[in-house]
Amino acid sequence: xxxxxxxxxxxxxxxxxxxxxxxxxxxxxxxxxxxxxxxxxxxxxxxxxxxxxxxxxxxxxxxxxxxxxxxxxxxxxxxxxxxxxxxxxxxxxxxxxxxxxxxxxxxxxxxxxxxxxxxxxxxx
Length: 124
Hints:
Order of helices and strands: HEHEEHE
Helix content: 25-40%
Low-confidence stretches: none
Oligomer: single chain
Strand content: 25-35%
Organism: Actinoplanes cyaneus
Shape: elongated
CATH architecture: 2-Layer Sandwich
Number of domains: 1
Distance between the termini: 67 Å
């Protein structure tokens, strides 16, 4: 088979690191209505300490998300804090959908998105 005129055959591999997948997944999860925050109690505590000392962006990009990336596939774990009054199943399903869409748009196949609801944010 002949290559079309003006194109160059491409050789090699492209890999996407787990760190990048975590950032993509975190951004997608934060965009879901009903998600108040990401991360468990300890992560949120340390984040508040960092905020107080002027390091408010350290660790925010992927906080609450971990990813296992192998051979073009990803398994993602997301820890969320839901807004009070939201329906857990609806929000967690939306998180799974949005995270899957976002990560797959980078060329990976998502095997699973596990969502752990760690807390409820009650606005007062």
